[in-house]
Specification:
The protein has 311 residues and is an all-alpha fold. It is 71% helix and 0% strand. It is a multi-pass membrane protein.
């Protein structure tokens, strides 16, 4: 009885001590519950022949026919290739850009100059993808685009970015890096701020150059953060950034061989065909694969170094 009383006393003490922090997390917990857990009932649509009149629970079951319909379609290979390939390219590009700019910011001695650079780099992160898409149209438009006009005047050749899909293998990663590097570099920069300055002083006394100090001190400190963010990104490798792949290429069918991914395909299936069941099946597929990708990547990271694992 005394042991139970002590446990209750510890719980009450913990609640009193952390009550404000717990109260601050309640809105986030409520949001996750409403928008992430309650909609999970819709998973059953992936295994039903959905009839709107009968509703989600009254529609007949059809097993895995919705999954088979997607994977047997002519677009399945192209969409999966684009989703995995472009997401892998974006993960690598954003990782390298974030680390590089964080290291460059860390080398800036002037605080005023540092704040100016951070503000300039972070500003695009607040742009909506709709606005970014309009900016890209102004830049790459076929007739009045600033870049296409410049290329035409310099070379005499007309370049049509919105009819040649392979240009977007370069354009999409560049746009993603431009928009997201400010945020990712801030995360890595905060990790660099925790490094003891005496390590750099000792390295300088030993004759190490600045590049050697970055290689042997700064980068090893960043590796755990790099691995953690990469594991989370790989878990979402089948979930493309809808805004990037829909608004930036403007949903132009000529670009689908490169820009069409699972999320845009599902969006069109919902808005054009009203195929809720197949869309739910694709969502379940994304979630299951993402779950196992996180487990596998985390296991691999822990095999390399036990401290690199996310859990």
């Amino acid at each position: 009885m005394q042991t139970g009383g002590r446990r209750r006393s510890k719980k009450h003490t913990s609640l009193r001590k952390n009550g404000q922090l717990i109260a601050m997390t309640l809105p986030a917990i409520l949001k996750i519950f409403v928008f992430a857990y309650l909609p999970m009932a819709g998973i059953i649509l992936a295994f039903k022949d959905y009839v709107p009149v009968k509703g989600m629970f009254g529609s007949p079951w059809n097993g895995f026919e919705n999954f088979a319909f997607f994977f047997q379609s002519a677009d399945a290979w192209r969409i999966l290739r684009n989703t995995i390939g472009l997401n892998a390219l974006l993960i690598a590009a954003e990782l390298l850009a974030g680390v590089l700019f964080a290291l460059l910011l860390y080398e800036i001695a002037s605080k005023k100059l540092l704040k100016a650079y951070q503000s300039v780099m972070f500003f695009p992160y607040f742009f909506s993808w709709v606005l970014v898409g309009l900016m890209m149209t102004t830049l790459l438009g076929p007739s009045t685009g600033m870049l296409t006009t410049l290329i035409r005047k310099l070379t005499g050749h007309e370049v049509s970015f919105y009819s040649e899909p392979w240009y977007w293998l370069i354009i999409l990663p560049l746009v993603a890096v431009w928009k997201g590097t400010g945020f990712s570099s801030l995360i890595y920069y905060s990790a660099l701020m925790s490094i003891d300055k005496e390590l750099f002083e000792a390295a300088e006394i030993d004759g190490a150059t600045r590049v050697q100090s970055i290689r042997h001190i700064s980068v090893p400190f960043l590796i755990p953060m790099m691995v953690m963010l990469t594991i989370l990104a790989i878990g979402n490798i089948l979930r493309a950034d809808f805004g990037l792949f829909y608004f930036v290429p403007r949903n132009i069918s000529a670009l689908f061989p490169v820009t069409d991914v699972l999320d845009t395909y599902v969006f069109r299936a919902l808005t054009v065909n009203g195929d809720f069941a197949m869309s739910a099946a694709v969502g379940v597929f994304q979630s299951v694969v993402g779950f196992f990708m996180i487990l596998g990547t985390n296991w691999l990271a822990k095999r390399v170094n036990r401290d690199y694992g996310l859990f």
